[in-house]
Structure formats: C-alpha cells, structure tokens
Write a structure and sequence with these properties.
With 268 residues, the chain is an alpha/beta fold. It has a single domain, classed as Alpha-Beta Complex (Spore Coat Polysaccharide Biosynthesis Protein SpsA, Chain A), CATH 3.90.550. The chain is built from 9 helices and 7 strands. Strand 2, helix 3 (51-57) and strand 3 (61-64) form a beta-alpha-beta unit. The chain binds guanosine-5'-triphosphate (GTP) and magnesium ion (MG).
Amino acid sequence: MPDDDRQDLRLLAIVPAYNEEGMIGRVVRDIERHAPDFNVLVVDDGSLDGTVAQAESQGAIVLRHPFNLGIGGAMQSGYKYALAHGYDVAVQVDGDGQHKPEYLPEMLEALRTGGNEADMVYGTRFRGDPGYKVPIGRRVGNLIFSVVLSAITRQKITDPTSGFRMVNRRGIELFARDYPHDYPEVEAILMLHNNRLRIHEVQVRMNARGFGRSSIDYPRAAYYMVKVMLALFVGLLRRRPDAFEGTPPPSTGEFPAVEASAESGGSA
Ligand SMILES: Nc1nc2c(ncn2[C@@H]2O[C@H](COP(=O)(O)OP(=O)(O)OP(=O)(O)O)[C@@H](O)[C@H]2O)c(=O)[nH]1
Ligand SMILES: [Mg+2]
C-alpha cells in the first residue's frame, strides 16, 4: 500500500485482557514499538488483579467492564469503540502475549493487497512453524474446525481458532453489531463468510502464553467443540445476504477516509 494511503488510516489494536497483570504492560509496549501507528485499547474484562493499572501506566486507552463478560464480549466492546471513534482498521492482540506485534505491518499490507483484497486478515500458526509447542488437543480441534470451515467457505482456513485477526471498516461494522460470545473465533469466520466479507491468511509464529491461566482446560475444550459445532450448523441455516448489509461500501476504495471523531486517545 502506498505510504500516502496508509497515513490516512486510523488504526486500533484491541487488547482483550482478563487478569493479565503479568504480561499486559509488555504487550502494550511491544505494540508501540513494532506498530507505532496503532492506538492501543485494552479492554479489561473485569480483572481482579492489577491489569488496569499496568495498562494505564503504559499509556494505553483502557475500557473497563464492570464484570467479566468473556472474550467475545471483550472483543465486541473493542469493535464498538473502534466504530464509534472512526477507526478504519482494528486488530486483536491478546493480552497474554501470544500474538507478536511485529506482524502488524505485514498484516496491514495484506489487508489491502492480500488475495482479492481482504476484509479480514488473520495470522495462522499452521502454514509453517507455529513458534511454540501447540498442545495436541488444540491441534486436533483446530484441524476439525479447519476442515469444516474450509469446506463451507471454499478456501483454506488453516487456523480458525487464531484470535490474531485484523479487520477493515466493514469488519468493524459487522463485529460491532454482532459478535459471538463464548469461543468466538470459529463462528466469527462463518459470520464473515455469511456476510460476503473476504478472508486472507498470513503465516505467523506465536508465543506460548506468557503468564496466567488459559481459559481452555480439557472439560472446557470438549464443551467448546460441541458448542462451536452446533453454532456452525445453526449459522449455516441463516440467510446469506446478497451483499454486505452494513454501511454501503465506499466507492473510492477499500478504506473509507473517516472523519476523525472526538477523542482519539491512544498511546501511539
Ligand atoms: N480467560 C479469559 N480470557 C479473557 C476473558 N476475557 C478476555 N480475555 C482475554 O482474551 C485473550 C485470549 O484468551 P486465552 O485464554 O489466552 O485464550 P486462547 O489464547 O485461545 O488460549 P491459550 O492458547 O491457552 O492461551 C487473553 O488476552 C485474555 O486475557 C475471559 O473472560 N476469560
Ligand atoms: Mg492465549
């Protein structure tokens, strides 16, 4: 993308965080270091530890939930914020340090130029070396969802459980309006497909979780599989609109030049 185009874009990194005091400061600093054009919004999902103080001390914008809503609720709050504040691009960067911000420039480039131009670009661990030892249960679950979603979307979706995803304004509008609740990543891909938004993968390496507890232990993994499979089949029964039904796409290109609204805030 030519530099001139990129300068006009308003970019937001949404960092969902639940009890991530051990990593959140570093995540915010790393985004600022590797992708200084992004403002950083930490969505604190009712943490009981020092997450908010750590995020604020690094200059992030912090949005606080009064109680825990889960990752889907945290991300939807982030997308609503992005929509209300006129951002053109929003990317999820997990607060546990798994997503490496050094990939953000490449993902931004791919959002404009990837495939047939993309509405969502996400980082896949499974096109090469994932960068850490992905637990076997997670690999198997991922493979099952990969087969199902690749068949539905008729394109290769190699890492449907990756949360490392960047969307343009259309994606922001869609997800601000509606975002799946528990374990949202897989369902969100079906939502994009149902709304005829285009998806593109880039190969990334991730880190093992840096601190704190994963939300997905074995009993929950079983629940996750059943719940998400059911949600996929229900999603398939939904009407598929002829075209994206949000704000009509701009005639001038992929990224509408949105008037900067009120406070921009941000650390970048
Ligand atoms: N566990 C948990 N995480 C949340 C919640 N709300 C927001 N998050 C954040 O969402 C991000 C992803 O959650 P993780 O538990 O790491 O999910 P995951 O990356 O799929 O699982 P792991 O690979 O085991 O880390 C993290 O940055 C969490 O801090 C919540 O209610 N529970
Ligand atoms: Mg994680």
